[in-house]
Design a protein that fits this description.
Strand order of the largest sheet: 6-5-4-9-7-10-8
Distance between the termini: 97 Å
CATH topology of one domain: Alpha/beta knot
Helix content: 40-55%
Shape: extended
Radius of gyration: 31 Å
Largest sheet: 7 strands, parallel
Number of helices: 16
CATH superfamily of one domain: SPOUT methyltransferase, trefoil knot domain
Structural class: alpha/beta
């Protein structure tokens, strides 16, 4: 019985390399060694659906007409033929290349980027998810030659963010029910300068470990120190060990209103606890609270959204205690600097070695971290579609206005003519 294309089992990469005809060295290796990997004069060969089905996967990319995948139109690739168990070199279009099995990993290798398999291996070796910077000794040797005026902008931006971080305020999320709300709170906290966020996990949470949704957090979780607890008791013990006063959000009559009319003394270390959306903080947390606080509301709704409430409370605390900004100890700053610089370098080996030189000699922070040019956070094709629709709506509006003006003018003219006739 013949199987359709979807049910056919793809050969594993290890199987593909066994007993198959290897391409001639001149076809691939010479291209890489001679530096002719980028060839703008490539022309693709016809490749129909039958040809596509015959190939099991992409072995590797030999050349392309651009090093930017978005600009690529033609590639020279080595393909594994499922029937002959041999490899064939073909020049194909990007449209034909993209659906092929293992095309993504082949392009990453061609562009010297780590594959998914390599990234998983790296995470096992480095739990922080990033490669280490070069050794402090090597960095110190290079630091003497640093030009402070030539520091990379992203490092100066990191220093500005670091200079505004606080350890005085710690945010605790107790048993958040909605995962989207939880992640929105992380983004809010990071934007306001909070560094430490503790989470008492919801018993219904499926993941054993916190997993961020990048569409919601916008990567803010990468710059936070997040700690998770299974129970409220465990979290309270850790807070007491850290010598923190516990302030919980509560709508009871005993809670203090945090508005501009009330003056409150902010302790040296305070943990602000935000309760669950449905019923607020637990009885255990309320019983252990040093202070209960709430925000005034002036509408019919009896509660704020979780992220909105967090933003208002934290902003109020910073307004009352502006000296909380930038109070991270130097030791923690150095630890965060090591982590952040590594993340900012990403997978660029050369960039990592350059950034490492600045760890012990951090550059001056930016005066303003806002970008020089606003970059849309939506995909280009989505932004293009939105812009086109907005232009169409605007065009229709102007056409209606022109038609209305024309109609009014003609009506006014006919009325004037009629009046003139009657007078005669």
């Amino acid at each position: 019985m013949e199987l359709d294309n979807k049910s056919q089992k793809r050969p594993r990469e290890s199987e593909a390399g066994e007993g198959i005809e290897q391409p001639a060295p001149s076809s691939v290796e010479s291209q890489s060694s001679s530096g002719n990997r980028i060839d703008p004069n490539l022309k693709n060969e016809p490749l129909n659906e039958t040809d596509l089905q015959a190939f099991g996967h992409v072995v590797h990319v030999a050349a392309a007409d651009s090093d930017d995948f978005n600009a690529v139109t033609v590639l020279r690739v080595v393909l594994f033929h499922s029937a002959t168990k041999a490899t064939e070199e073909r020049v194909i279009s990007k449209r034909a290349f993209t659906p092929l099995h293992m095309s993504k990993s082949a392009w990453k290798k061609f562009n010297n980027k780590p594959t998914t398999k390599e990234l998983k291996k790296r995470k096992l070796e480095h739990p922080t998810g990033a490669l280490p910077l070069i050794t402090p000794a090597a960095a110190a040797a290079a630091a003497a030659q640093l030009d402070l005026d030539s520091a990379p902008r992203r490092l100066r931006r990191a220093e500005k963010v670091l200079s505004e971080r606080t350890q005085r305020f710690l945010l605790v999320l107790e048993r958040p029910h909605d995962n989207h709300n939880q992640q929105a709170v992380l983004r809010t906290a990071e934007c306001l300068g909070i560094q430490h966020v503790w989470i008492v996990k919801n018993v219904e949470q499926k993941q054993k470990k916190f997993v961020a949704n990048r569409k919601i957090t916008r990567g803010s979780d990468d710059w936070l120190s997040v700690r998770e607890f299974q129970t409220t008791t465990e979290c309270l013990m850790a807070l007491r060990e850290d010598n923190r006063q516990v302030w919980v959000t509560d709508l009871s009559k005993t809670a203090i209103c945090l508005d501009e009319k009330v003056q409150v003394d902010i302790p040296a270390k305070v943990a602000l606890v935000i309760g669950r959306e449905a019923d607020g903080c637990s009885q255990e947390m309320l019983a252990a609270a040093d202070k209960r606080v709430f925000l005034p509301m002036y509408g019919f709704s009896d509660s704020f959204n979780l992220s909105v409430a967090t933003a208002l409370l934290l902003q109020r605390l910073f307004l009352v205690c502006p000296q909380a900004r930038g109070d991270l100890p130097e030791e923690e700053k150095h630890h965060l600097r090591l982590k952040w610089y590594t993340q900012l370098a990403k997978d660029d080996e050369q960039r990592r070695s350059v950034y490492a030189q600045w760890v012990n000699n951090p550059p001056a922070p930016l005066d303003d971290i806002r970008p020089d040019e606003r970059v849309p956070i939506v995909m280009k094709k989505v932004m293009k579609r939105i812009t086109q629709k907005e232009e169409e709506v605007q065009k229709e509006f102007h056409e209606r206005m022109a038609a209305s003006t024309s109609s009014s003018t003609s009506t006014s003219t006919s009325t004037s003519t009629s009046t003139s006739t009657e007078q005669q």
